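User: I'm putting together a teaching handout on how sequence relates to shape, and I'd like one worked example. Could you take AraC family transcriptional regulator from Paenibacillus jilunlii, show the sequence you're using, and then write out its predicted structure as tokens right after it?

Assistant: Happy to. First the sequence, then the structure tokens directly below it.
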Amino acid sequence: MNVLLVDDDYYVVAALQKKMDWTALGIETVYTANNVAQAREIVENHSVQILISDIEMPQGSGLSLLAWIRENGYPIQTILLTNYADFNYAQKAIELQSFEYFLKPIEFDKLMLIIQKAVARAKEQQHNEKAIQEGYYWQKNQAKNLEHFWRRMVSGSSASPIRPSAITYAIKEQNLSYHMDDTLQPLLFNVFPYNGSMGKEEKDLFDFALLNILYELFRHPDFGIESILEIKDYNWIAILKWNQTPDTGTLEEICAFLIQKTNPYLKCDVCCNIGLPGELNQIGTVLKSLTGMDEEITRCRNHTYMVEMYQKQSKTAYIPPDLAHLEELLNRNRLAAFQEEVSRYLKGLLVNRTVDTSILSLFRLDIVQLVYSFLKMKGIQVHKLYSGKVNDRLQLHSLTSIEDMEEYLKYLVNTAMKYRDLTAQPKSVAEEIKQYIHAHYGDELTRNDLAEIVYLNPDYLARLFKKETGVSLGSYVIHVRIAAAKQLLETTRLSVYTIANKVGYTNYSYFSKLFKQEVGLSPNEYKKEQHDQPAM
């Protein structure tokens, strides 16, 4: 496998030559060129499978080079580099079937993965061409057949264990070489990418890198990997086929090394779940027990869990923490102590290495109720304070791992305390409401509407506002609207009906009544008086 680097910038070519581990990528020879003419000559005289080329060059662009490659039928995987996020460039690159379109400055770790994918594509292309030539093209579909078979086994066992007759039928349908007494063992991996990592931002590349690691680590003389499937986001199942007596200890060692490797290299945490070994005719039950454990337990990240051990554990009843003490810590604003107590309780649940989600769900309910009651006493409306994507995401994942639960509870309590501190300063709340009224006097401004802006109970807000300003909310709204109406009557030729609507009154009679009460004149009288005054 050979690569050609093309860029008119000598330093870019030199950096690519030196900083990429070409040997690890399986690249034998690295050719270089500084313009399109040199690149064409190399392609014509040497075997090149991967091309990495700049787009903008003085003596011909990378796109014209790619067009020439396609016209001449060279099977080269092309990665284009550019300094500009130009849509026309990207569109042309897609039309010419470039493998990847990559913006400078070059991030070498990401480029490494992209080249790995290009190498894999090139090898697949070579393999396919060879298969066609040799008349064995059916081999190309073997991996897909295996994936299809195992997806059916996993999905089929989610409701109830799949029957042996259904397994036999699926084997024949996919023309697979399995026997019903083959010994298989599933493993399930829960992956937790760090915020800002490639796992969050570029999942395709992350998945590619993760699969590389899994296939590399689980290569063993005692078993083979039949398939690795993502059953839902960041949850993967690997199916192993033993050719020796199953040895769970070996799998534990490999899982420990996987955890050690994914933290620094993939910037993520991982949990390994080892299913029971069993013959193929039992695979439905084996998969059901693994996925069942996955649904029923909350993990501590970077640990390995085994179905065999989980099934031996006796179920424990929920014993709540000292809620009165936690409530006291909230009232005294001791956030750090509250978090410490919560963490201590959660770690205590992990004495047996697993926590049933049913128990953790009851614990979460107690803490949420505690925080909500605390906020209600402060007059804060919880349904508004905790509505939004952040709350939904954290709550959804809170039963996934102990760390996720801690993150959710930290968000829950910090948000409560932050807003409690704000409402403890009536001037801040009153000023925010006043500013909102001045900016939206033309909108509907009921007491309930205004209370939702600051997430407070309407009665509590009304009392707080009057205490701070000496004016009721309703009176303040009327005062601001009438002042705005006076300004419009003085400075515009708009009709009184139009002005009434602009300041939030659809009922003209009611507007006229309020205006006269505030000003002493009707709107028309005030308008006439203002416009009849001689100019100064």
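A couple of points you could highlight for students: DSSP finds 25 helices and 13 strands in the chain. The chain has a mean pLDDT of 85.
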